[in-house]
Design brief:
Distance between the termini: 50 Å
Strand order of the largest sheet: 3-2-1-4-5-6-7
Bound molecules: nicotinamide-adenine-dinucleotide
Structural class: alpha/beta
Strand content: 15-25%
Shape: globular
Amino acid sequence: MNGGSASERVFLVTGAASGIGAATVELLAEVGVVYAVDRDQGIAEAFKNRNNIRPMAFDVTDESAAQALFETIGNEFECIDGLVTCAGICRTASLAETTAAVFDETLAVNLWGTFLMIREALPLLQRSQQPAVVAVSSELGIVGQPNLSAYCASKAAIIGLIRGLSVELAPKVRCNVVAPGPIDTAMLQSFQAERGEGVAEAGLGLPLRRVGQPVEVAQVIKFLLMPASSFVTGAVHVVDGGLTSQ
Ligand SMILES: NC(=O)c1ccc[n+]([C@@H]2O[C@H](COP(=O)([O-])OP(=O)(O)OC[C@H]3O[C@@H](n4cnc5c(N)ncnc54)[C@H](O)[C@@H]3O)[C@@H](O)[C@H]2O)c1
């Protein structure tokens, strides 16, 4: 069993097959071992033959699978140093069109999935010298947008969840939120396609006049997991090209 020492930190990233999660796995793999989990079965292919990346097919809403996942990690490592909850879904629907199924699925993946991962990771996090959690919310947890009420509610709830846990789990476990603006990923591509627009158009109204790249969010996530951010907890870090400052 290994220790998760400074030379071999251990991380877990959900939603790791694509976009922001995949970019985060790549950055964290430079400084440690990364469990890269996603419900997309393509996760193994995405990171095959990578020494310090452990890809696993896994659904963040599945309680018994979560317990098995952390048992597997605990058999290999003493602790987890950093958890990133990035798995998320975004369903576009007006209020009238938002069925119970759409609402429940959105809250299940985005909120329950985040809560479950942190709860189940906690025993291994507490064994780390400097454990940290980063939950990925959205600028839409802070400001509104039409036809995304379930998504906005789920992302705002992540902010409340992390604020509560940052106090409950202090001083041992630091917990922070990253709230991205429009980032060039599969999620934004399909959202824009539904509106008959391209990805670039989502950035035109921002102060920085462009959408972000996944690695620009991953860099902030990585900082929040590392000792360099040792006095930062309970905070919401927007990475949004200035969107929420307008
Ligand atoms: N792209 C943006 O503009 C943007 C903006 C704000 C917030 N976000 C948030 O960033 C996070 C990452 O999104 P992205 O843009 O990289 O999108 P993405 O669609 O590229 O990646 C999301 C990943 O989450 C996985 N996933 C979905 N449900 C899952 C589940 N139940 N269990 C495990 N994995 C699951 C998907 O398979 C996918 O690989 C999401 O939480 C999203 O809400 C994205």
